[in-house]
Design a protein that fits this description.
Blueprint: H1 5-8, E1 16-21, E2 24-29, E3 36-40, E4 44-56, H2 61-70, E5 76-87, E6 93-106, E7 111-114, E8 118-125, E9 136-151, E10 156-160, E11 164-167, E12 171-175, E13 179-184, E14 200-205, E15 208-212, E16 234-237, E17 244-246, H3 260-275
Antiparallel strand pairs: 1-2, 2-5, 3-5, 3-7, 4-5, 6-9, 6-12, 7-9, 8-9, 10-15, 11-14, 12-15, 13-14, 16-17
Length: 281
């Protein structure tokens, strides 16, 4: 049997975390330096050998509380054993980043796998002029090791040497040394369905880099879930005296639990507008 496929798709034969191709990660386990790693739950597409997959919790009370109350989604599994493991995420492009006693901030929705030599935690970005008491949350990796990130589309690497603004769902990773915040461009028209669709951006200042994917990702995915201008729409009539109520599906989480203060304010604005009341906010 002959085919170009047999040459182009041959398995690579190197230990550790390597790119099998643009959209697939291969991790060779079994040597002293490569006995285990952490990966996003459900990302395994194939494996060979004696491999064990185990649930990996937050690892500390602090991280557990942050995940529970911020909605930062980084569901992990611990992969160990001897053999080869292949990982992918919805055919997204996979890229490897090596940290050498450095720190990198990554959108949790883009984390595919990382080596156990890296420490990780959930950090907060303040924004919205203090209106959101919790800010937005991301995963920060520190130390020495390799992390694999998945990008929806081919990314661009921007060098940050001047104020830089990125859509919060398009930002994949950036230097932790950068000063990060949230810039709001919401205008009054957003509350009556006349928003631009570009309500909030990640604002970065300092010297470093930011990796930007060519997509805003899957709808409602990632730790940087923000409210889009004009996202609130009146829901269908409910059995409440014929009155309209806010469509539950129109509410998009802002960084989980602690960021919902702003959403509640905006939801109330929309709700009272449809009931003909004057908002007392």
């Amino acid at each position: 049997m002959r085919s170009e496929l047999f040459q182009e798709a041959q398995e690579i034969q190197q230990p550790g975390m390597r790119l099998q191709n643009r959209k697939m990660l291969r991790v060779g386990l079994g040597t002293d330096a490569h006995r285990e790693f952490y990966a996003r739950q459900g990302s395994m597409v194939a494996y060979q050998g004696a491999i064990d997959f185990a649930y990996q919790g937050a690892g500390s009370v602090g991280r557990f509380m942050k995940k529970a109350f911020t909605g930062e989604g980084l569901p992990l599994m611990k992969v160990s054993g001897q053999g080869d493991v292949f990982l992918a995420h919805e055919a997204w492009d996979v890229h490897l980043i090596d940290l050498e006693e450095e720190s990198l901030t990554v959108n949790g929705a883009n984390v595919l796998a990382f080596e156990p030599t890296l420490g990780w935690d959930i950090k907060r970005i303040q924004g919205f002029g203090g209106m959101v008491s919790g800010g937005l949350f991301n995963t920060v990796f520190t130390g020495r090791g390799r992390v694999a990130v998945a990008c929806h589309g081919a990314p661009v690497l921007l060098q940050v040497d001047q104020p830089t603004f990125v859509d919060t769902q398009a930002a994949v990773a950036w230097s932790s040394s950068l000063e990060a915040g949230i810039r709001s461009t919401v205008k009054a028209g957003a509350f009556i369905g006349r928003g631009s669709g570009e309500a909030f951006q990640l604002a970065l200042e300092g010297r470093g880099f930011v990796l930007v994917q060519a997509s805003e990702g899957a709808p409602g995915s990632g730790p940087l879930r923000v409210l889009r201008a004009g996202a609130f729409r009146p829901g269908p009539s409910r059995a409440r005296g014929g009155r309209r109520s806010l469509d539950d599906g129109a509410v998009v989480g802002v960084a989980g639990g602690l960021g919902r203060h702003l959403l509640l304010r905006l939801a109330l604005l929309e709700h009272v507008r449809w009931r003909g009341l004057v908002p007392l906010l």
